[in-house]
Amino acid sequence: MLVADEPGTTRDPINMVVALDGEPFEIVDTAGIKRRTKIKDDVEMYAVMRAREALKDADVALLVIDGTRGVTHQEQRLAEEIADAGVGLIVLLNKWDAVDEDSRALTEDGVGDRLAFVSWAPVLRMSAKTGSRLHRLPKAIRAVLETRRTRIPTPDLNRLIRGWQAAHPPPMRAGKRPRIIYAVQAATEPPTFVLFVRGGEIGPDYLRFLEGRLRNEFDFLGTPLRLYTRRRHSRRPEDIERPRPGTRT
């Protein structure tokens, strides 16, 4: 690939099939994704659009961060965009050979703080220039690909959620306490779960709680999880809304 010290060298996504430990992987090098206010011309705008299209088709994104600078606001936004796209994530701290011992701890703390919302992503320290520690990358990619395909049997999933819900019930919302009556894993890549709820609405805080429990129970390294809720109405006769006179059912 063409590289330079100045940003903006790559314009179009460049695809290449490479062998990592004898296994072929298609790697796509894209232009950096900038905010709209930072895009200077139509060429940059189309480069960013093509980069986003490549991201949607990816299985794993490698977020390269300059280890001498640490995590910037733009890289925080990129990590959020990767997670929202449902793509696996590995954070690469590049130029690690150029970071002195005193600065390494500060850089690592900054990664932990500024990328706390994707704390599930593995962080690799490396040097593209010297090739240092690059041998760890194939193993990390395979691990993320494997966890993205994890499927939890429905009986096991419901048993776990019943236990977590009994120990920590969902908080009341609008005077009602919701209850999860059934759960199913609807998809993989990324792992996606649907929770059928009765009695109220479950808020984002409780969904984060359940995500944390799932990650503690299973190895979801490097992959976002998606949790959705669906309302299930009560089937008790007294809870069924009666049709008004003159209406047809």
What is this structure, in a nutshell?
The chain has helices at 42-57, 73-84, 101-114, 137-148, 154-167, 204-217, and strands spanning 14-20, 23-29, 60-66, 88-94, 123-125, 179-187, 192-198, 226-231. With 249 residues, the protein is α/β, with parallel strands linked by helices.
Write the layout of secondary structure elements.
Blueprint: E1 14-20, E2 23-29, H1 42-57, E3 60-66, H2 73-84, E4 88-94, H3 101-114, E5 123-125, H4 137-148, H5 154-167, E6 179-187, E7 192-198, H6 204-217, E8 226-231
Parallel strand pairs: 3-4, 4-5, 7-8
Antiparallel strand pairs: 1-2, 6-7
Features:
single chain, 249 residues, alpha/beta, Rossmann fold, GMP Synthetase, Chain A, domain 3, three-stranded parallel β-sheet, three-stranded mixed β-sheet, 8 strands, disordered C terminus
Q: Can you tell me about this structure?
A:
There is one protein chain. The protein has 249 residues and is an alpha/beta fold. It has two domains: 14-148, P-loop containing nucleotide triphosphate hydrolases (Rossmann fold, 3-Layer(aba) Sandwich); 154-239, GMP Synthetase, Chain A, domain 3 (2-Layer Sandwich), CATH 3.30.300.20. It contains six helices and eight strands; from the N terminus they run E-E-H-E-H-E-H-E-H-H-E-E-H-E. Helix 3 (101-114) links the parallel strand 4 and strand 5 (123-125). The model is unreliable at 236-249 (pLDDT under 50).
